[in-house]
Every structure is written in structure tokens, then in C-alpha cells.
């Protein structure tokens, strides 16, 4: 069983552009040498790291990427907030506003209203991260302020859950709530990813789930970041429905050879609530009538993860068609996807 926790707490991590040297053939340093190098990197770049403070009360991390106060962070850090501020390494606090975001990748740009130039970090969008590479995040968890967390890359291209970003970097960096949005830096002092999640997962040969931290890589995202700077906003397509997956025994009870997805609840204000889908109804003490989703746009659905992944692959405004089993009746339901709400 996987237990996932977004590394942001209810109540938020940077690289100075100077001093970083290009070397496309840099070897992976051994752990001891990498630790020493990352300590140097931290001393150089931490003035560009920030804490993001939100209302309702919350804390996350971020980092300046330009001298005029642009801050890169994780989208979920500012997703459900009314207002937020950036606190810099010298303990100064500035109001900030959203510039743009890609919610599916869980990255966002905000603009802090700074009075003058600020130190900023350099992004690495061209060189891939490698397994066993040592990395460092700068964050604000455990009551600490702009503190380093060092670890090594354990996996690349991970998808941990259908409703999380895909192609994540997994590592042993000891992140905790409050570190989300922080920069993930290599030994050259460049930001290669943004911290987004923590969790435990079972791995081969392990009796106990292994702690992992996850980050959204910046590889290949130079163009996207440019679009976000210009105000691009990509929301998560959403139906507004709570789902559950049938077990094999439950599927057989429905007379199905394979699984399906049960509609548990409809969220008020979202399109599913007025689409014709129905929540479970108790017909008698031992009998409940529930909508069972069998197909989406003609494709068989065997798990809630499959359905969520398909919906996330579409765009806000797209209409999807569900084939639904309701008792002995098969019905067709159309839902126009809307954006998952974000407080403004």
C-alpha cells in the first residue's frame, strides 16, 4: 500500500546565476565529494531561496529565477490560497501574485513585489538527471528556514499516482511538509527540478516501504517556462466525482469478467453533478444501486486510476462520454470537463 503526502503544510525553497560552470560531461561524484560540493552550492545560492506564506495559513518553498522577483514554486503550494507572501533569506516579506502555471506538471510562477534586484538561480533544462546523482533541496519544513536537504537519485520517470504529475525524479532527500516548491539543485549549482511530493512505497526485496521524495524535472521545459512567464495557465480537467475501484469479487457479483469504477459521490458545482450520473442509493438493507463506469469514449475502464489518467490527458472544455451500468440498465452520460477550482 502506498501512502502519499504532498510536501506542503497548511500554514513554503533558490541558485544564484553567478558562479555556475558549464560542463556537459561532469561525472557523478561519490557521495562524500558531492556532499562537500553541495555544501558550497548551498552557501552560494541560498540567498535566492524563499519561504512562501499563504492565507489560509500555510507554508511552502520557492526560489527566485529572475532579478525582478519571479519565483518558481509548486502549483499546489498556491492552489487553494486567497493571498500569499514571499519571505526572503534576509527575513524581508513581500506580497506576491500569480503569473502563470501548469497544474498538471505542478509548477507555478509568482511575482514578488520586491523594491529592487534580487539574487536568483539558474535553471538546468537541457541536461538530464542521472541515477545515483547527489542532489540538494532547499526548503522550509520542520520549523526550519531555508535549510538544505541532501540525497541521491533512486529512480527517474516515476509515476506514483494517476492524479500526480508523471515522469518524476525519485530520491532519498529527506523532505517534509513545507518543502514543496523548493529548488532541487545539482552539484553544479543549477536547479534541475522542483520538489512536489513525499511518500513511501514498496520496493523489490524490501519488507518495509521505503521513504522517497519526488520532484518535477525541468528537463525540456524551457519553452513551457517561457510561456508561463507570459501568463500561460493550464488547469487540471475535472469531472467532479469521487470514485472507487471494484474488487475482483465485486466485479463477479456484477457479472463482469473484469473491473470497473464505482461512482461514490458527486461534488456540488462540478459538471458530473448535473450530468445524469447518480450516487449510490440504498434499495434495501442488503442492496445498494450504484453507477458503474465501464467505458470512457469507447475505451474500457478497469480502474479509477485509468479513468483519472484519461481525464487528465484531455483539455478543460472537452466533452467525454461514459458508458455506465446502473443495475441491469446501461446508460450513456456526457460530461464537459471543467477546471478544478482554484481560489483567486
Automatic annotation (TrEMBL):
Pfam families, sorted: PDZ_2 (PF13180), Trypsin_2 (PF13365)
Residues covered by the PDZ domain: 239-328
InterPro entries documented for this protein: Chloro_Bact_Ser_Proteases (IPR051201), PDZ (IPR001478), PDZ_sf (IPR036034), Peptidase_S1_PA (IPR009003), Peptidase_S1C (IPR001940)
Keywords: Hydrolase, Protease, Signal
Biological processes per GO annotation: proteolysis
Keyword Ribonucleoprotein: no
Record-linked SUPFAM superfamilies: PDZ domain-like, Trypsin-like serine proteases
Segment forming the signal sequence: 1-22
Keyword field contains Acyltransferase: no
Molecular function GO labels: serine-type endopeptidase activity
Name of the protein this chain belongs to: Putative serine protease HhoB
Source organism of this protein record: Calidithermus terrae
